[in-house]
Amino acid sequence: MVYILNIVFALQILLAGFTPKPVEKPAKVVLTISQWDSETLEKANTAINADYLSQEEKNIILYTNLARMNGPLFAETYLEEFLEKENIKNSKYVSSLKKDLKKSPSMQPLQPQKDLSEVAKGHAITSGKKGTLGHQGFEKRAKPVSP
After folding, report:
1. 81-111 exposure pattern, b = at least 16 Cβ within 10 A, e = fewer
2. Residues 15, 76: one domain?
3. Total count of domains within the chain
4. How buried is 4 (Cβ within 10 angstroms: 0-12 exposed, 13-18 middle, 19+ buried)?
5. pTM as predicted
6. 3-class DSSP state of 124
7. Is residue 26 over pLDDT 60?
8. How much is the pLDDT for 45?
9. Which has the higher per-residue pLDDT, 20 or 109?
10. CB of 62 closer than 8 Å to CB of 43
11. Whole domain around residue 135: which residue ranges?
């Protein structure tokens, strides 16, 4: 699990400045790489109708899902395109990310959840106001959405 979170975190850092082509409303996914079949793109686009998320948040979920569903193909396509577009040179961090993606097993896509999104947003606002970092108090924040 930590391994997957590290990949997701690295992807979020790399993709934070990346402005992908927008994902259009429901039936049509507009992306630039032709190696991905439409069924996989549709399956990965789990946040398309989540009206509580921004377009950037929806795109992050989409790209995270593509990396989860087919890490090797993600490394060959989106990651390579991003590194080239942003003129990011190879480093030990980039090499580590590529290596991890190329050996990552296929996983189910993440499903957005409004209640968890609201908890995360509240945490970000509180942390920003207090100037704190980290996840202290997670149990208290998650209690309203815990089973």
Report:
1. ebbeeeeeeeeeeeeebbebbeebeeeebbe
2. yes
3. 2
4. middle
5. 0.69
6. helix
7. no
8. 96
9. 109
10. no
11. 113-147
Shared domain for 56 and 81, answered yes or no, is yes
Could you tell me if 15 and 46 lie in one domain? Answer: yes
CB atoms within 10 A of CB 137: 12
CB atoms within 10 A of CB 20: 18
- H or E, element range at 65: helix 55-69
Rounded to a whole number of angstroms, the distance between the first and last alpha carbons of the chain is 20
Which amino acid, 112?
A: P
Residue 20 has pLDDT above 50, yes or no: no
**Statement to judge: residues 60 and 104 lie in one domain:** yes
Asked if 106 and 127 sit in the same domain, the reply is no
- Asked if 76 and 120 sit in the same domain, the reply is no
**pLDDT of 23 strictly over 60:** no
What pLDDT is attached to residue 93? 96
If asked whether residues 68 and 117 sit together in one domain, one would say: no
55: CB partners within 8 A, 6+ apart: 22, 23
Per-residue pLDDT tens digits for 44-74: 999 999 999 999 999 999 999 999 999 999 9
